[in-house]
């Protein structure tokens, strides 16, 4: 045997007491009033399931969740910023320095408002790109300086490191160095040069201290060294007539005499193995 559904609204039986009793219990009909089949059809649409003489009530549970896609996990702001920076670098690699937030949003697959929520303006984003790559360069440079090798060899390897960054990221480097010539009102001018020169100043301070040289020369030597490498590598990348190894040799030959003059010929590493990377 099976359950049989009896539709009270469509029932043609005027003596269907089960339907009438259910309406009375539900408060849809007064206890002293009987209902015709038409009244039942207009007022209520009920169903009961009959198993021989038993009546089973059926209730339907409706989910309380509203319309639309369920909310996902919260977004980590640091992860979102890194994703935006990655997208910005891909755009720069394709289009060069003409970078817009609309292009970045399209590349990242985010709304433009998400880009502005992470970076207030274009100079701020460019500054963060400079910080990202300068920190990577400094981490690798510190590993070079920790080696027990002659300082002249360490200098050549540092030149090769920076030149390699310029060669591999020529369009990004050009964008980061645009502010080299004009300070941004936001204070983010020359981010790549300034950050690298600050690190180089620490290197020259330790070097001059070991050699007993005049510390008053440190900042100017550090800035001149970093500027020479960055600009020479940029020019070489745009107008290359030789390989990178030759560029490194030429820059080493240009920069080393000044260090040799203060006694760096016999100096060996490790140099500043504990130099901070930030």
From TrEMBL:
<protein>
    <submittedName>
        <fullName>TetR/AcrR family transcriptional regulator</fullName>
    </submittedName>
</protein>
<dbReference type="GO" id="GO:0003677">
    <property type="term" value="F:DNA binding"/>
</dbReference>
<dbReference type="InterPro" id="IPR001647">
    <property type="entry name" value="HTH_TetR"/>
</dbReference>
<dbReference type="InterPro" id="IPR009057">
    <property type="entry name" value="Homeodomain-like_sf"/>
</dbReference>
<keyword id="KW-0238">DNA-binding</keyword>
<feature type="domain" description="HTH tetR-type">
    <location>
        <begin position="78"/>
        <end position="137"/>
    </location>
</feature>
<keyword id="KW-0804">Transcription</keyword>
<dbReference type="InterPro" id="IPR036271">
    <property type="entry name" value="Tet_transcr_reg_TetR-rel_C_sf"/>
</dbReference>
<feature type="DNA-binding region" description="H-T-H motif">
    <location>
        <begin position="100"/>
        <end position="119"/>
    </location>
</feature>
<dbReference type="Pfam" id="PF00440">
    <property type="entry name" value="TetR_N"/>
</dbReference>
<keyword id="KW-0805">Transcription regulation</keyword>
């Amino acid at each position: 045997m099976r359950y049989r559904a009896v539709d009270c609204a469509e029932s043609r039986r005027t003596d269907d007491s089960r339907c009438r009793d259910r309406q009375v219990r539900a408060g849809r009909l007064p206890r002293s009033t009987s209902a015709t089949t038409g009244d039942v059809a207009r007022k209520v649409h009920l169903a009961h399931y009959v198993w021989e003489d038993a009546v089973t009530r059926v209730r339907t549970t409706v989910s309380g969740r509203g319309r639309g896609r369920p909310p996902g996990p919260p977004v980590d702001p640091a992860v979102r910023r890194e994703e935006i920076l990655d997208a910005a670098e891909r755009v720069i690699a394709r289009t060069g320095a003409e970078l817009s937030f609309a292009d970045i949003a399209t590349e990242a697959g985010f709304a433009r408002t998400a880009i502005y929520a992470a970076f207030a303006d274009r100079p701020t984003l460019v500054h963060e790109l400079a910080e990202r790559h300068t920190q990577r360069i400094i981490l690798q440079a510190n590993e070079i300086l920790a080696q027990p090798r002659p300082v002249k060899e360490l200098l050549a390897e540092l030149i090769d490191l920076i030149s390699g960054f310029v060669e591999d990221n020529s369009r990004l480097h050009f964008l980061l160095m645009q502010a080299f010539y004009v300070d941004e009102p936001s204070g983010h001018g020359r981010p790549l040069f300034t950050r690298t020169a600050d690190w180089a100043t620490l290197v020259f301070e330790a070097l001059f201290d070991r050699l007993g040289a005049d510390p008053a020369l440190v900042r100017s030597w550090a800035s001149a060294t970093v500027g020479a490498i960055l600009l020479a590598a940029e020019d070489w990348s745009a107008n290359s007539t030789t390989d990178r190894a030759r560029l490194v040799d030429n820059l080493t030959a240009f920069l080393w005499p000044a260090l040799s003059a203060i006694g760096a010929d016999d100096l060996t590493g490790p140099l500043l193995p504990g130099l901070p990377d930030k």
